[in-house]
Amino acid sequence: MATYKETVGTSVANISGNSGVVDGQLWYDTSSSAFKYQYLGAGAWASGGNLNTGRESASSQNIGSAPHSALAAGNGGPPASGITELYNGSAWTEVNNLNTVRYGAAGSGTTTAGLAFGGENYPSASPPYQAATETWNGTCWAEVADLNTARYATCGGGTKTSALCAGGEFPGYATTPVAETWNGTCWAEVANPGQARRFSGAAVVDNTSGLIFGGLNPGQSPSIYALTELWNGSAWTEVADLTTARYGSGGTGTVTAALAFGGDTPPNTGKTEEYNGTSWTETTDMSTATKFMFGSGTTASALAAGGSPALTRTEEWTNPVLVSKTLTE
Questions:
Q1: pLDDT above 70 for 146
Q2: Backbone angles phi, psi at 154, to 5 degrees
Q3: Phi, psi angles (nearest 5°) of residue 10
């Protein structure tokens, strides 16, 4: 029979405690006189502070400098609203409202430098679809150049000066594949994704790097997608599908480290999946199965809030941690 050294290539080390131990390592803990094994445990969702105003399909900016921070703008009526709240890692505080009320918008940036775009103002506005874009400076919103295509149920992300907007619903209740990029001054139409869809999740770094996944296109068969597409700044490429087709999911992260959570399969689900740049893997479920929540953050530290019907709940995602297990006979 082969020895551990012959199989693994190293001897079992003698270490006091777990100082310097890495994922997948077997060692002998001299402080407790026991063999131990270290592995990467699953990430976990935990309850956070509730929103002051229940909402769904609000835009949310990416994580700021503090863990689990976010900026939520707009409301998932009807009626739509411009209510904006800031999360500091434990509680939401209402701040200055958007100038254009809306729901089903998308957002990008940070808690001090954000962007909100698109959405719908039904039944107050005619037409209800919004092209309005606003920037956030940490205190207030300012209107800037509109999207070229007014829409709601769009997805996107990035920064205040470099963002991507893709898909959604536009007048006539049609689902569009149209994509636009933001350069800090104006929006420009770019190559369309291969599939028209709305209520997709997204993980976007800037206007040259992003993922969109899942989504809905009524009238098609199938109408709910697991499809994931990668944007490289000039073209879209199909990559690995989600393990579970869904629409109305939350999303956050980057093109090599993304999270997709919640949505409608149907029924509503709390399933969470993590993307590593090659494939999606199912991980720990959210405690609340819902759709139309909004999210922000990274695979290390993320946030999901709201959901249908106009929920106030917040859940915080914490990156998987190393777990040490004592081996027994």
A1: yes
A2: -85, 175
A3: -140, 160
Please check whether residue 317 is in contact with residue 44, taking contact to mean a CB–CB distance below 8 angstroms: yes
Distance separating alpha carbons of residues 60 and 75, to the nearest angstrom: 11
Helices (H), the chain: 4-8
CB of 80 closer than 8 Å to CB of 120? yes
Tokens 């509109």 map to which residue?
Answer: 146
- Cβ proximity of 83 and 92 under 8 Å: no
Q: Are 104 and 88 in contact (CB under 8 A)?
A: no
For residues 163 and 205, what is the distance between their CA atoms, to the nearest angstrom? 8
pTM for the structure as a whole: 0.85
Q: Tell the residue number behind the tokens 């599939």, with chain if given.
A: 195
Nearest Cα neighbor of 190 from 213, 215, 214, 209 is 209
**More confident site: 219 or 180:** 180
Report, as an integer, the average pLDDT of 77-106.
Answer: 88
Q: Which of the residue ranges 5-19, 172-186, 223-237 would you say has the lowest mean pLDDT?
A: 5-19
